[in-house]
Amino acid sequence: MIGKVIRIKTSIADAIPRIEAWEKATGEAKYCGDLATPDELIARVLVSPHAHARIRSIDVRAAAAMPGVKAILTGEDFPILSGVLIEDRPPLAKERVRYAGEAVAVVVAADEAQADLALQAIRVDYAPLPFALTPSQALAAGAPILHEGLGEYKLAVEDVYPQPGTNIVSQYNMRKGDTAAAFSQCEVVMEQRYFLPPSDHLAMEVRTARASITGDGEVAVTTCSQAPHVVQEQIATCFDVPTGKVRVTVPYVGGSFGGKAPVTLELLAYMATKKVGGRPVRVVLPREQDMASAPCRLGLEAHIKLGASKNGVLKAAEITYHLDCGAYADIAPYMTMAMAANGTGPYNIENLACDAVSVYTNHTYATSFRGFGHESYLFCVERAMDALAKTCGMDPWEIRFRNAIRPGCLSPSQIECTASNLGDLPECLNKLKALSHWEEGRRIRVDGRTVRAKGIACLWKAVNPPSDAISGAVLTFNADGSVNVNTGVIEMGSGDKTRLAQMLADKLRMDIGMVHVAMSVDTRANPKHWKTVASLSEYLNGVALMRAAEDALSQIRSIAAQALHCAPEEVEIDDAKAHKRSNPKEFFHFKELVHGYKAPDGTSVGDPVLGRGGFMLKGLSPLEPGTGRGKLAPAWTVGAQVVEIEMDIFDYTYRILRAGTVMDIGAPINLKATTEMINGGVSMGLSLASREAFAYDAAGVTRTPNLRTYKLLHIGQEPEYRVDFVFTPQEDAPFGLRSFTEHGILGIPAALGNALSAALDREINSLPITAEALWKAAGGNV
Amino acid sequence: MIARNFAYLQPDTKEQAAAFYQEFAEPFYYGGGSEIITMCRAGDIAPDAVIDLKRIPEANVLRLEGDALVIGGCVPLRAIGDSGLFPLLKLVCGRIADHTNQCRITLGGNLCGTIQYRETALALLLADALVVLFGPGGARAVSIHEAFDERMRLLHGEFVLQARIPAQALFLPYVHVKKTAGEKIDYPLVSLSALACGDGVRVALSGLLPYPFRSRAMEDALSNRSESRERRVQNAIQCLPAMPMADYQGSAEYRQFVLRQTLAAMMEVLNL
After folding, report:
1. pLDDT of A7 higher than 90
2. pTM > 0.90
3. Which of A471, A561, A771, B249 is the most buried (most CB within 10 A)?
4. What class, spelled out in words, does domain B60-169 have in CATH?
5. Every domain of chain B and the residues it spans
6. In what order do the strands lie in the sheet with A611-616?
């Protein structure tokens, strides 16, 4: 116990690789689809070819008689409704389909080929109904009503407000100041409309789920979910099983971007296994169904009117957001609420009237997508800011700097902004100016047919958890003194588990190599973490984890104090050792303490160390109906981005040259990994804005539900990325760190739109911005 | 995944291939297989047999024979490009799909497949090539203009054994431009191939209409040097046999705009 004391090698600032990097790089990492067992049956899903139709009949007789077919399920088998906010969605359509791609029947067979053949033998007789594909169509007089029973649906939460007899799922109105009076005094008024189509998440891993039921009623589910505990609770609720009897395990998730937060295939897997006496059943979706059937990103129609003084100081805003939430509510009402509460963008506007409405349409239903709606409304707001700057004859950077929301301002939901809950947007803008060489000019003529242009956009995002979101962490120790971390956080590629391990290593004063993280999540072993969504892991789970570390440290101190014959307060911890403050050379290694201490004379001292920590969010409140006053989130993250493009002025094709981001992330934790995470978001935003959309034919059926025709940005098309940071600590967060994992995407669609609008000198107010869209905006001459 | 079982046959001779074809109800000739695999997967076709032509010696030829370049129907697009024997066709092949697929897709498969663009036909149409077809009735060599009308017109059980391209067409000044909605690797909005020939130009197009075509009327309009370039392009567009397609990749009007740009660029490159 006498030796040299060295400082630990790992700190939160170090650029360590992801802890699962080797496993993933070697292909050893296992995902849900890799965990097939010899006894499992395969389920395939039959989907609707109609956007909206009545199901007259389903004839499964021929299919049921085919070889290998064990069961066929239709909506009649489990006539239940599911939904996390509004229980409006049957896992299998009953009597009616509301979008092309909706699940109508499930075949369970011995193998995939038999399931596939049987699927083709099911005969469904549909009577097509009129359909609505955009919020405007769905809100128009005489529009087909998607859910006549909207008034009877069970609401799972209090703050959703469906309007029976219409297609309005929920609505949130923000009222601050006196908008009418303020507009009458504005010297400059700008008004525009915006349109964003639905698009897809397109995680590399296609969704899949597996379920079985033992003879004594134990339900086992393995799935690629971001929310295993929600899967557990939903299955318990929908099928009346005691929650504790449902065990959900999630291995690595191969990307999700919000798309694996809702509970979908898990319900089908449960129904399928139930129907075959509990044998394990795995539901398999081909990519085409993963795109057309599983929930996608929302569409949006927006109207923005901004009023300002002639020197560009914002005075008033009137904003309408109509979200295309597709055929079922899922989480769309809460995205609508988040858009209402943050819908001005990060600007100080004292007089605001903002109405955000989620609207049913006959599209594939929408769910959370990286940005939780912020990536969509920010396109509108930031395009509007550029249009306002143009009207005022101001530089777009300048108008943003002048109006940037600052500590002391009131947010749209009338929360007072502080440095801690907001961060420093003006400083982000200052740094971005240098990073992007903004002073070079916005539009530069390169040669006879090429112009180069820059577009800027600010971003902000408030995390939007329910006010009772919880998380937990349990720490156990190994005989070598290393620690095992058990949390409910899912690793889906966002690096959360590495950052949490790094935070823990720092807190426990040990090398990162001594932190072992349980990578898969098992609801029976890991404490509940609300959902791995909203970029909240480092905050929600981070607080719990730090509490668990404190708990473990106090136990280690207590044991060490007895071993060192001093008071616990005299014990210092460093390099996985506990030593006396007065004599650092007198110490015990964790390995001598964590399973209790055995003195040289054989006396046992203390107990095994078990660290526990939990956290429930505090101080949040729903939005007050009418004014929208309320606190939805603990804090915002702010930042600003620039995209630089080069456009051919003859054929309107363009290249994306550079994309710069400056974000206030609170604290410098593993900036290398953070930079890559932000770049991933930027790349996703560029892809979304430049090419991604579900295109629909005249019958309301998506024409591009495959990767042959639905194009993504790929390697070789990426721009030069530039990233810089501002660090304004969020005081209640571990190490002061702010959320950032989604945020790289947020301002990018708008920055691209602003760059191309500048290049073309036209207002580009729709996505995606293709060469054809630019040609059309330029007049569309053939 | 392909759910249905089918027979896989690998004949060594063309005669055996044609004989196999007659033994099945729903047979498909197989070159690279890229379309067959995707269409089976999507449930669009359900062959009971695929007859792999890749072991037929004549279908693998790629060489100059006398006054013609002979390309077997099973030669992959990539090999055609790498040989450098027909620079225009090299460019065409280099813009079909990606490298991986160019190593699989064959000349015969591209000409006879169901994907409507069939861009290798553009070069054959411009070069006045012959195609050698083989089927239960034996071999026949016919002009591409006779064999290809919107698509290959094959008799029952026939496949493309070879294409024979007149040597004088191989080194004419050429242009190939493929315009897509945005991606380099994608189906074309407009895919234009041109060969300058004497005073005039030969032009064939894919992507614009639901089939590839060569238009003599457009060629005449573009070759008429008594008019300005702009005028000639305008006249050529007037000669289009039908309205351009409209689909998820682009509207008819936008295709027309892209065509105009592409034709204008071609005129400049070929100095017409």
Report:
1. no
2. yes
3. A471
4. alpha beta
5. 7-50, 60-169, 172-269
6. A515-517, A483-487, A470-477, A611-616
